[in-house]
């Protein structure tokens, strides 16, 4: 039986972390990206095409789907991307592990559990719900085996295309104002990239994970003010903190399409946004997650050595 684990979107934040975790666990890895191949075991392939998806997934035992369209094109392109990837996974006879998020639930007033209805009505939430339906329908019909791992906003080494990225860590190191997107005093589940990767690989390794979605383990919910205070302490000095509020988001969004898109899911930022990961812990525990202070220190160190 093949022990080849294929990572799609391997140069992104989540994909690169999954490659590192698989390698650390001794698995044979193929790192797939749309750009140039980056080293041994890597493959350049366009998985938006059937030919590219089949080539990327060939001989795989498990495929980790970490690729994504540009954020502003999710609603138009994500379902089509998944249909193509499903073709590649099916041709390989592989299992699919989807790096998912929490958009499907829409606005909620309680900690999110996996049994909440998929009540999102915004375009991105509807697109993610369609993606999940396509994957689980393919599992139920026997086309593939699949598991989905849902995570909240993330930070960590290599995490540059995230709201908890350069505007916080690079800004702190440069002595500039750190900006938290949303209300500074609302509790928010934030995930550390290596913890996300470890949980996704666990889903890939366990057959009992198949056929459903899981909330991936993260450290305790934290407010933006608390998170930025930890960054201040680790960075040294006293970088200022500020909230990027709804009005500022609207203003910047007039000329920045990525910031403009944040308005669609502002409900994730103006009230508690907390994920319950107890089902994963019960099924696959004990689980060790990285304390926020340790994750922040490692992330700052990465930015010191990698960020421009």
From TrEMBL:
Q: Which InterPro entries match?
A: Epimerase_deHydtase (IPR001509), NAD(P)-bd_dom_sf (IPR036291), NAD(P)-dependent_oxidoreduct (IPR051783)
Q: Which SUPFAM superfamilies match?
A: NAD(P)-binding Rossmann-fold domains
Transmembrane regions listed in the UniProt entry = none
Which intervals hold domain NAD-dependent epimerase/dehydratase?
6-209
Give the superkingdom in one word: Bacteria
PANTHER family assigned: NAD(P)-BINDING DOMAIN-CONTAINING PROTEIN-RELATED, PROTEIN YEEZ
The name of this protein is: NAD-dependent epimerase/dehydratase family protein
Query: What is this organism's lineage?
Result: Bacteria, Bacillati, Actinomycetota, Actinomycetes, Streptosporangiales
């Amino acid at each position: 039986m093949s022990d080849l684990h294929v990572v799609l979107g391997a140069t992104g934040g989540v994909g690169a972390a999954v490659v590192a975790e698989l390698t650390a666990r001794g698995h044979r890895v193929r790192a797939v990206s749309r750009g140039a191949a980056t080293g041994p075991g890597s493959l350049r392939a366009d998985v938006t095409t059937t030919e590219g998806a089949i080539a990327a997934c060939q001989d795989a035992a498990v495929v980790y789907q970490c690729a994504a369209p540009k954020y502003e094109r999710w609603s138009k392109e994500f379902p089509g991307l998944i249909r193509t990837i499903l073709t590649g996974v099916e041709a390989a006879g592989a299992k699919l592990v989807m790096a998912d998020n929490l958009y499907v639930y829409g606005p909620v007033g309680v900690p999110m559990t996996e049994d909440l209805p998929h009540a999102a009505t915004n375009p991105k939430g509807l697109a993610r719900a369609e993606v999940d339906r396509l994957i689980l329908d393919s599992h139920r019909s026997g086309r593939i085996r699949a598991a989905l791992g849902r995570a909240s906003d993330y930070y960590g080494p290599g995490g540059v295309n995230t709201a908890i990225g350069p505007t916080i860590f690079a800004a702190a190191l440069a002595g500039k104002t750190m900006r938290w997107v949303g209300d500074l005093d609302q509790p928010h589940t934030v995930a550390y990239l290596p913890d996300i990767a470890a949980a996704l690989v666990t889903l890939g390794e366990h057959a009992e994970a198949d056929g459903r979605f899981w909330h991936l383990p993260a450290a305790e919910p934290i407010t933006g003010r608390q998170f930025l205070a930890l960054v201040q302490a680790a960075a040294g000095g006293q970088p200022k903190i500020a909230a990027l509020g709804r009005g500022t988001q609207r203003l910047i969004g007039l000329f920045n399409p990525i910031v403009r898109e944040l308005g669609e899911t502002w409900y994730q930022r103006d009230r508690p946004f907390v994920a319950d990961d107890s089902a994963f812990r019960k099924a696959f525990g004990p689980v060790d997650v990285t304390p926020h202070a340790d994750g922040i220190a490692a992330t700052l160190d990465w930015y010191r050595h990698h960020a421009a």
